[in-house]
Amino acid sequence: MIELIGRDRPDLFLIISIVILLAIGLSTVYSASMAVSESGLFRKQVLWVVIGIVFFLVGTWISFRRLEEISPVLYLLTCLLLLATIFLGSGPADRWIIIGPLHIQPSEIAKAGLILMSSWWLSSLRVRPRKYGELLVFLTILPAIILTLLQPDLGTSVAMIMIVLAIFIWAGYGPGWIYLIVSPFLAAVSSIHIIFWILFMCILGLILYRRRYPFSTWLIFMGGNSIVAALTPFAWNLLETYQRSRLITFLDPSSDPHGAGWNIIQSEVAVGSGGLFGQGFLQGAQKELAYLPARHTDFVFSVWAEETGFLGGLILLATFFLLIWRITLAARKSVNAFNSLVTAGIAAYFTIHVFVNVGMTVGIMPVTGLPLPLISYGGSQMIVVFFLLGLAVNAGMYWREV
Amino acid sequence: MYGNSKNWPFFFSLSVVSILFILLGAKLIYLQIIKGEYYRGLSSQNHIRVIVTPAPRGVISDRNGIILADSKPAFIVSAVPSEFNRANAALVEQQLEMTEGELNEILDEASNVPHRPVVLREGLGVEKVSSIAENLYRIPGVVIDVAPLRRYHRPEDFCHILGYVGLADDQNSFRGEITGRTGLELRLNETLRGIPGLQREVVDALGRIVEEFRGASSEDPVPGGNVTLTIDAGLQRIAITELEQTGIPGAVVVIDYENGDILCAASIPTFDPNMFARGITQDEWTAILDNQYNPLFERAWAAAYPPASTFKVITACWLLSEGLISPDYMPNPCYGSLTLGDTEFGCWAAHGRLNVVQALEQSCDVFFYRTVQLGTINELAEYTACFGMGSRLTDVLIGEKSGLIPDSDYLNRAYGNDGWGLGNLLNISIGQGELLATPLQLAVTAGIIASRGEMPFPGILLQRKIMNPVLSHGAVTDSAFDTVTEGMLRVVTSRRGTLYNTFSDSSLDFWGKTGTAECPGEDHALVIGFVRDPMPLAICVVIEHGGHGGAVAGPVAERILSSYFAEEGSD
């Protein structure tokens, strides 16, 4: 019998991994900022960290019950912020809202809002199941994803969907169920080749058989997805040439060797030239030569890997793994569904960001502009990440809370 | 755990996370350990460099083999912004005789594509470039390329025909590649450019060649094709000289009416295309822009003027060939003007009773005002088009204008359905109104009369194939040719002819027609005509705002042809 009162100490491993990653992040931004003409980057980053720690403390201090109550309101606020970005957005790619000295990137905040909202929905569905409840969840998160897509920020909206799907998995929806949910998208992709399409349909049929759905469900899924697959080539032809090339470049950067593909090649050269032990702190040659784009934000891992080599890269990845593992443990322990789902969402947030960002710099993922949490330069992102980490520590301390 | 019964989400998630991290780690092992040495070499810095050997651009010469445009060896100096150390800026500026700060400005402008070299100086001779080459090891990021400099030997005479070249700046061109910007250089660029050669070398950070690249073989350049023009450079020179003596803009076109060769297409004012080939300076560019007569504008085929009385040749052909009048027909006399409704259509003198030959000879307007009313505006417009008016005559001359023949559709658009009337036809009959023709078209009109309709379409390339006649077969009757030719002869030989004074002391047998185009400011002076001996030439001279056609353009035409034949005879 578990004691259901009291609280634990904060998870020491979690705190240690945060401190290590923060140290790596600050030193890499410092190194990268040496080669950037914009002065004061490092000092600003320190400021963001200080503000972030305040939000971290807020996250550890806040009551999850209070948070659960205000989650829909918080989500609504982030949607309004995203809406404002569409009309008032400025800065690179119109993704920022600028109020005086404040530069806010609402799509970063929206990710936190999405985690809270979908956790809120799924935990309340657990208390009071509804017919088509899952559909309601998706309809609720749709505005945030569409508004992000309109910015346009395809990478972030895909990341948002992945986070929500991860929360669904944590809530007990199996991979088969997830497959059914994303099947229209898979159908569209499978229309590239008949082999893919057959494979897709076989898996679909297997899942439908295993889950013993009635004939009407079979008809809807098999028929609907066949129509989607058949119509995709026409829809593709309806797109303007530039829209097509943007999609192709997103999925296959090497098709555009002067633009995104060029960045990837430079980043791979930087990472590769790090070797086993790296070029040494502040010694990265590629970074100095201004070859590396966005080296303090999106490609910050390249700078770290170039200067500290495989050893440094491994330490970074291992620390992130430790962080994610400890957060997942906290999610597993938590008795309350909302606490557990939020914490799992935070773990998913980190997993997706680390994989997509580092994957991009080593050339196994498309260029998306997702930052590396705790490492990349940037205020909005730093504050959101610290707040989420505060929540994760909080959940680990109060796991008994019902 | 809130879902006490299920542990699988935890293990599922953890295994997904593990797989993703293992993927990242594997790629890191591949990049940093397996290929680490290779990438370290790349970044510190042996790399493959492609050396492009430019193909010699084709030579352009005139019909007698006089070279008008060729290339001489020259070099360009560029800098790669990402490799260039700005501490060396002063040294480079001094070597290249640039002003202080100029280099930094160029680099700042190019900084968004830091790996693509920017041209600092082009068209440098061997002496200039050798001093930089000696210092190249001290200034990494600076590159020297061979880039032949286009040289125009008769720059003023041929600036509009040939146009000029400049450095190509599109993505597919190599550094120092030159490409046609205007004129025939642009139109015939594909013929002239040739195919550049390629060599691949492996170089180190200081640009020293380590070895020839063994991956692909070298390719030698293929020289560009040569082009021969129909233009006679001697005649072109004479025409430019004579035009320049008038001191105002103008154009001359001379065509061999038997084969359509354009022997001369002169336009002033001129400019020096070599300025563009070697890279124009700000002062030179400002000087061109400040010239109110716009030297860049070509006037022999890219400008359209009202043909004025020279058009009466076509009107007369129409009246005669369509049987509207006979050669002897004399309408009511010219009293110096014709009043139609409440509008008075003027003539420049009271000519009395005339037939069509006399009307051409004295350029009487009233004769045409009266007779042209026998037809309609659309009939005249359709007939005029047979002479090549209203459409382009060649397919190689860039910017060639088609001119304008107004018909009822055009006038309806311009003035509304009831906004125009018989007066427009009267104006058009004497070459005024909305009618516009290029000097080239007017020279062709003279050539058609001279050749009795046999003249082929004009051309400027000697290698071209001779085309069909411009004039549709049978559009002008034989008797109309006889009558109009006689009228054009009387313009010169008759005491009352508008060119009598001009040619009274000349040994030339000339058939002509003058024109004085009314326009805002001083009138345009025009003359068209032809000679049969010693060469079958048709000519058109236009002097912008020059005044009276017979008094201004006529003497220019006479002097050009006399000087040319004198020069030809002395050879």
Structure characterization notes:
The complex is a heterodimer of chains A (402) and B (571). Chain A has helices spanning 12-33, 41-61, 64-88, 106-127, 133-149, 154-170, 175-190, 194-210, 215-238, 241-251, 260-273, 285-288, 300-333, 337-361, 379-397; strands at 97-99, 102-104. Chain A is mainly α. Chain A has one domain (12-397). In chain A, strands 1-2 form a two-stranded antiparallel sheet. The model of chain A has no long low-confidence stretch (mean pLDDT 84). By secondary structure, chain B is α+β, with helices and mostly antiparallel strands. Chain B folds into two domains: 75-146; 233-284 and 295-570, DD-peptidase/beta-lactamase superfamily (Beta-lactamase, 3-Layer(aba) Sandwich). Chain B is built from 21 helices and 19 strands. In chain B, the strands form six sheets. In chain B, strands 14-13-19-18-17 form a five-stranded antiparallel sheet, sandwiched between helices. In chain B, strands 7-3-2-12 form a four-stranded mixed sheet. A three-stranded antiparallel sheet of chain B has the order 1-10-11, with no helix packed on it. In chain B, strand 13 and strand 14 (262-268) form a beta hairpin. In chain B, helix 9 packs antiparallel against helix 21 (549-570), helix 12 packs antiparallel against helix 19 (478-493) and helix 13 (356-362) packs parallel to helix 19 (478-493). Chain B starts with 7 loop residues before the first helix and ends with a helix. In chain B, 45% of the residues are buried. The mean pLDDT of chain B is 85. The interface between A and B is large, with 51 and 37 residues.
